[in-house]
Amino acid sequence: MSEENLDKTNNNDPKEKKELTKQEKIKYFIRETVETIVIVLVLVIVIRAFIGEPRWIPSSSMEPTLQIKDNLIVEKVSRYFTKPHRGDILVFFPPKVDKKLDPSLWGRFTRTIGFFSSDEAYIKRVIGLPGDEIRVVPNIGVYINNKLLKEPYIKEVFNGECRPDMYCGPLVIPQHSYYMMGDNRNDSTDSRYWGFLPEKTKMADYKNIGSKYWESMPEERIVGRACFRFWPITRIGILQRPKYN
């Protein structure tokens, strides 16, 4: 076969690759970029909704255990397999009477992923479990089932006054509810002031809601358990559950 015929054969080869035009390259780049962004966003949402999320400490209510601007990992996996234990540090949405959670689908979504939520989350320690009888005695400490709880992690005992409108007890904690307290007992808005933390919000009366189905559904109030401090580097470490008497 002559060289001329060989060249013609090569030119007619359907497998010969065509060079992309500049416009086609731009379109390809944009498509790849959008696909990558969508995949990353989906992964971030799934991880934050079901596995864990970072949180930072904005107040002194958990001192000395947690300091202002500490950065933590809040895991969400254990809640699917076990109930909270005494001593666990939880992030949650408190049952404040003066400020209810946003019941819309967007409100639920933002609380789930921990982004753009207008609802304020708290971080406190589980002190009382369902069925416990709890009593907070100023200048002495916390009694669980008539036994003084040893708490070496607190900054100081509560030295204020238990007013009639406070939840100092003696009180029996209802099922599926918890008594939460900050380690800085004299600078913490906790169960002493707003009562028990329910695992879920109560299902509202659908007739009184009047619009959306999801607004009538119960919702988890507990976000997750603080398990690891990753910043500052000098305080990095696992947040251990204390051992009680």
Keywords:
2 domains; 4-stranded antiparallel beta sheet; 22% strand; 245 residues; 5 helices; 8-stranded antiparallel beta sheet; alpha+beta; Umud Fragment, subunit A
Explain this structure:
The chain is α+β, with helices and mostly antiparallel strands. It has two domains: 3-43; 51-238, Umud Fragment, subunit A, CATH 2.10.109.10. The protein has five helices and twelve strands. Strands 1, 2, 3, 4, 9, 10, 11 and 12 form an eight-stranded antiparallel beta sheet that branches.
Tell me the total number of β-strands.
Answer: 12
Global geometry: elongated
Uncertain segments are 6-10, 203-211
The share of residues in helices is 10-25%
- What is the typical, i.e. mean, pLDDT? 86
Tell me the fraction of residues in β-strands, as a range. 15-25%
- Structural category is alpha+beta
* Rg result: 27 Å
Span between N and C termini? 96 Å
| N-to-C series of helices and strands | HHEEEHEEEEEEHEHEE
Brief summary:
By secondary structure, the protein is α+β, with helices and mostly antiparallel strands.
